[in-house]
Task: inverse folding
């Protein structure tokens, strides 16, 4: 009769225990992390460490030894090609156990056993990136709407400029979007009073330009008179 390993036995027989640990190891390598009882995790950890060490060697004999415990060929392939390569420069300590507290019902202590730098971490990072991607997708229509609005405002400005030039001549220009003067235009025109204001005028700063002129002559040609000028000056 074989000598039992140290600690409590899982299942009703050694064969049943080997089967339980093999299934747990398969799930661990497939998902990168599993939640189980503390007793099972402590029995699984040395087995998982040993299997990863064999996967790091990567030879045919090691593969045969691993396949005695892991029957899923897909998981064996992942173990040798991905997990083994990931831990190639790590001398040991491939797994970690995180306590989660007692299980509701039987109060059994539960833990999470996972691969260090596990695929679970990558999955969590991917899950964290998903909301950001959704937020970016939501922002895209808003950016497009803002761009369309800016384009429409620009078109309106161009249209207003063309109307000003058509009404008052080529040396007239409509105010820019922010109400400021186009480059080279510093004469303010007020269409209500048909007066124009020069930079040295008394009310220049207080006056809101409804049309800008390049020169005083352009303003006079458009029918505007200088603010503050007497009839004799005109």
Result:
């Amino acid at each position: 009769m074989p000598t039992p390993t140290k600690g409590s036995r899982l299942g009703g027989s050694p064969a049943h225990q080997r089967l339980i640990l093999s299934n747990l190891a398969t799930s661990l390598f497939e998902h990168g992390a599993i939640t189980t009882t503390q007793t099972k995790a402590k029995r699984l950890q040395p087995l998982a460490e040993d299997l990863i060490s064999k996967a790091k060697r990567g030879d045919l004999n090691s593969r045969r030894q691993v396949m005695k415990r892991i029957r899923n060929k897909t998981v064996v392939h992942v173990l040798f090609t991905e997990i083994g390569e990931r831990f190639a420069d790590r001398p040991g300590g491939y797994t970690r156990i995180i306590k989660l507290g007692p299980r509701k019902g039987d109060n059994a202590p539960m833990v999470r056993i996972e691969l260090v730098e596990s695929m679970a971490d990558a999955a969590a990072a991917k899950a964290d990136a998903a909301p950001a991607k959704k937020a970016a997708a939501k922002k895209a229509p808003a950016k497009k709407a803002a761009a369309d609005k800016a384009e429409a405002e620009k078109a309106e400005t161009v249209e207003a400029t063309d109307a000003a030039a058509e009404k008052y001549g080529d040396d007239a220009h409509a105010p820019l979007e922010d109400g400021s003067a186009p480059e080279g235009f510093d004469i303010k025109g007020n269409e209500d009073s048909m007066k124009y204001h020069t930079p040295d005028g008394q009310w220049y700063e207080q006056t809101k330009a409804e049309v800008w002129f390049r020169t005083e002559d352009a303003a006079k040609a458009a029918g505007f008179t200088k603010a503050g000028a007497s009839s004799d000056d005109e």
